[in-house]
Write a structure and sequence with these properties.
The chain is mainly α. It has two domains: 13-111; 113-163, Arc Repressor Mutant, subunit A, CATH 1.10.10. The chain is built from eight helices and no strands. Helix 7 crosses helix 8. The chain starts with a helix and ends with a helix. Residues 8-12 have low confidence and may be disordered.
Length: 163
């Protein structure tokens, strides 16, 4: 038997819970977007992040996908802020902003790895080393290098939301 509308409403996360989850997942991304891409001070970036999340929290249900909406809104707020400060526009395209956000998610995911796993993954993925070369560099067996790199890559993809 199907669920009633009231039952579905009870199962849906509250607006505050959705906004809280979105905040936890994207706060760091937005701070870096404001400071790195738009050259805004960390103090002002914090204020802009807060304002962006307030705007998101007040959206009606159903809300759009949080990360994409928040990045778009953050870019708009950053450009408005820069104009109010008499600074030139630095408007990245929406695609560039999403690429930047994806890169930041990967950086954050890499930071959760152990130093050894992070180094093994970087040697293999960024420097193009084979498992045997990674093993020689780290003083471990080729099998261990392959296992560390494979597990680290899976963990990073999962934490970055790509796998």
């Amino acid at each position: 038997m199907g669920e009633s509308k009231d039952e579905r409403e009870l199962q849906r996360p509250s607006a505050a819970a959705e906004a809280g989850q979105a905040y936890e997942e994207t706060r760091g991304i937005l701070l870096r977007l404001f400071t790195r891409k738009f050259g805004i001070s960390p103090e002002d970036a914090e204020k802009l992040v807060y304002e962006t999340f307030l705007a998101y929290q007040w959206l009606e249900h159903p809300r759009p996908e949080a990360t994409a909406w928040l990045i778009g809104a953050a870019c708009s707020r950053a450009m408005t802020y820069r104009r109010s400060q008499g600074l030139p526009d630095l408007a990245p395209s929406p695609a560039a902003a999403l690429d930047f956000a994806r890169t930041l998610r990967y950086e954050q995911a890499l930071d959760t790895l152990s130093p050894r796993a992070r180094e093994a993954l970087r040697l293999h993925a960024e420097h193009g080393m084979t498992y045997a070369e990674v093993a020689a560099e780290l003083g471990i067996s080729t099998f261990a290098a392959k296992r560390i790199v494979t597990r680290a890559a899976m963990k990073v993809r999962k934490r970055a939301g790509e796998g």
